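Quick note —
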Amino acid sequence: MQEPLKRILTIIGFILSVIVIAFGIYFAFFRAQPLPGEGTPTSEEGAIGELPNAGEGAPSVTEEGTAVTGGLQEADQTARGGVTVTTELTQSSVFNTALAGDGKSMNFYDESDGKFYSIDSKGNVKALSEKQFPSVEKATWNKDAQKAILEFPDGSNVVYDFDAETQVTLPKHWEDFDFSPTTDELAAKSLGLDPDNRWLVLSNADGSNVKSIQALGDNESKVQVNWSPNDQVVAFSDTAEGQGSFDRKLIVPLGKNHENFKGLEVEGLGFSSQWSPDGKQLLYSVSGSYSNYRPLLWIVDGTSASMGKNRKSLSVNTWVEKCSFASSDTIFCAVPRDLPPNAGFQPAAFNDLSDSLYKIDLATGTSTLIAIPEGDKTMSNLFVTEDQSLLYYTNTISGRLEYIKLK
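Predicted structure written out below.
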């Protein structure tokens, strides 16, 4: 080949190589990408802008053993430890709730018409009485929820029997009532103007046969009326001398016959309690330095022979008022999520925190998360039906009566 022709072909080849390289660089780095939906993607991950195809096969399992299917978790109809369906029973706020005598429906007060009603899990409502009680502030029910002590803003107190449709009036200077669990009696604080005339009293349900069992003086606010199911203790008094530290208390049980019960040593402030159904144990909550002054649940023996023994923490941060006994060895508690330090000093300030529902075995001290109420509910006034199939509660934010299926 002649030298000039060879040189020309070399130059043409070089030019073509530069053009090919330039196009390669352009396609690799500078070409505009198609907009979502343009063209036909061939990637196994699916079209641009869409979630990848999950394909087929068994779901993966987390370390905790929970199946992950790739979608949003569907709420369970029954409490099984995850998000659980809640059912509204009323469209308006309810007050002064109590488990009815049948063990499966709920009594409540409707302030809009001043009447008391009963409602079952299917939403069937019936009036307990056609009588109206405007502006009831508080109703204290007896064990069978057949009678209630009604307190009014003007200080008036009446006992109403919903079965017999009868009413009796109690003295205006009586307050902090509780019914006996075994007899037709009630306990109250009789608060005269003179501190020397302030007493813890017992009487018949109609206000007759009054007996003074403990002088209160200026300490009436330190006494909590709480009649034990075994008919031994009527109230607790936080009037003992200090126990060597700021948040250590001695709570004194007050007997109906002036018994000298052993005091309860509690590690914390804000003592509040609830009896087990058989009266053998006492569930209480206090807030101490060990819990950063969050409320903490404790259980302790409560009979005359074993008062104060076998005390143990349940390691659950909630108030006893947010718990309900299902049996003498099982309780259900609404436990606030993200409860901050010092919450025990101001319970009302944390009424908007969402709750999770726990089941606690008192025999073993084991607590188990059984439900996260759907919609982040705040729960109060918990009641478990006798067959333990339902848990009723008041939605603290809306005031409505709701329930969760336990089984």
